[in-house]
Amino acid sequence: MDNKDRPMNIDFVSAICKEFCEALSDVVLLEALSPQECWEPLINVLGKDVDAKTLADLTNEQIEQLRVAYASWFENDTITTDQIKTGISRTLVRWSPVSGT
Question: Which pTM was predicted?
Answer without folding.
Answer: 0.85
